[in-house]
Amino acid sequence: MLLVLSEEHKEHLGFLTRLDSAVAGELGRLALEFLRKGANAKVYEGAARKLNVTSDVVQHGVEGLTYLLTESSKLMISEIDFQDSVHVLGFSEDLNKLLLQLYLDHRKEIRSILGELTPELPSYHSLEWRLDVQLASRSLRQQIKPAVTMKLHLNQNGDQTTKVLQTDPATLLHLIQQLEQALGEMKTNHCRRIILQPAFPGQTHVPTLSPWGGGGKVVQVQRSNFKEQLARKLQVSLLVVFQGLK
Amino acid sequence: MELSEYVQSGLQPLADPGCFSPRAYTVLLQTAFQSLLDTQADQAALDHPDLKQIDPTVLKHCHAAAATCILEAGKQKADKSAISAYLEDCKFDRERIEQFCTEYQKNKDTLEIMLGSIGRCPPHITDVSWRLEYQIKTNQLHKTYRPAYLMTLNVENSGSGSHTDVNFSCTMEQLQDLVGKLKDAAKSLERATQM
Question: Taking every annotated instance into account, which residue ranges of this chain make up the domain COMM (chain A) (predicted)?
């Protein structure tokens, strides 16, 4: 696929023909800096004075080069297509080679920068969990109510948010079953045919049990002389659930 | 069981056959349990014909006292002897105590469930929905070819009953990590049953 450059774009890039390779290389570096960190007016002014042109011309040149590189990276055009697109500008052979090298060396980086612009949901970072047993509340004494409390860490736009959530044993098992089904989908022939990626590596997980403060009358299981009583009471509620799902 | 002056003075007319006939006592007892446990309880439950002869203020006081007594018994998980002892102190006769205890026994489990559900807890996960998608291109980047899972955790907030779902995306590796951690939690639960 060929890039179609507008007249204005060609005009801005026309500036490059008047430069020798070293300076053109420098301009290429400026274009990449522009992508990574934004415009730097002082540097453009300095370059403009050295080359005896206005800083506007330098800026347009840099922007034009940047746009050329981002469009090429976005569409992931092949070497030949890139060369053909640039040929239209009537640059020297050296300059063409320089631009091609610039494109090939940096297109992965440019694509990852462009990738950050996609609209995104918060993404999963990690999960901490904790097993709790509610013993009493203001409205009911002498309870034994097991629950799993979780802290879900999510990333969004570089910020990390955490959500504290809770679930009961039956729902936990249901969640595991549903999510394993989801994972299983990736291994079906249908998905394998469409998703053009090599097999995913296995993953070993280190369980992390991290106690952290919680509110209310919830007590973490600690004393051993309580364990037998708890085990007996839990057996009734939990074993029924496990047997039901096996 | 210890209850306030207000409750004790409300229970006194209930012990008195002159104030509450046996039929009226039965009806009031049933009404008290119903108004606590039946979510669709009629607001005009006290408008029963058998309760017409009793002064409305007294009736309301007795109903409130009976309901409080029931709730306190439920909260403390009181057994029959504790309830009987307390009602005896309020001068209830054998028959009325028996009736109260029978009615309480009948409704004990429902009462406990209701009391246990009151209270605050972190948002409770009830279900999960997932979607496997394959991204082909965005307006900034073509040929991305990236599979991802979109997860929705259906969450209920205690009390308000509102649903604020948690949405997030993850890669296959991240989902494997998540499932691994949840399985560890489940194994830990299973171990707790064998303590």
Answer: 123-190
